[in-house]
């Protein structure tokens, strides 16, 4: 859409400039026609160059989007794998900590039983 606006802007600018030149030129009609022909040829070449540049830009954008999409998908896959590995490692550590907590609780219970006074007979 912006490329169309750019092309329309160029064409409009050339048309306005052409009318301005025709109205303010001190040259003869033959000279003006020659200048218009030369300017027309230059303008056509310029527009072709702009068109090719816009097409190249469009192709580059499409290519960059495809490459970016592939890279983002690869990054997401790698991130998921890393998160799964971290969850697996964290689960193992959590289980080990829970076993240690139970061992500590058992040791505390044993100490409490050993420390508590025995009832007198």
From TrEMBL:
Domain of life, per UniProt, equals: Bacteria
| Biological processes annotated in GO | vesicle-mediated transport
Arranged from A to Z, the UniProt key words for this protein are:
Coiled coil
Q: Mind naming one GO cellular-component term on file for this protein?
A: membrane
Give start-end ranges for the coiled-coil region(s): 76-114
UniProt cross-references to InterPro entries, sorted A to Z: Desiccation-related_membrane, SNARE
Q: What is this protein called?
A: YtxH domain-containing protein
């Amino acid at each position: 859409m912006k490329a169309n606006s750019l092309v329309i802007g160029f064409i409009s600018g050339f048309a306005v400039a052409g009318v301005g030149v025709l109205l303010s030129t001190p040259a003869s009609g033959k000279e003006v026609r020659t200048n218009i022909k030369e300017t027309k040829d230059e303008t056509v070449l310029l527009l072709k160059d702009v068109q090719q540049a816009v097409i190249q830009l469009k192709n580059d954008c499409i290519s960059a989007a495809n490459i970016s999409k592939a890279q983002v998908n690869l990054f997401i896959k790698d991130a998921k794998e890393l998160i799964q590995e971290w969850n697996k490692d964290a689960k193992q550590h959590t289980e080990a900590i829970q076993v240690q907590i139970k061992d500590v609780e058992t040791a505390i219970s044993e100490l409490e039983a050993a420390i508590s006074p025995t009832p007198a007979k």
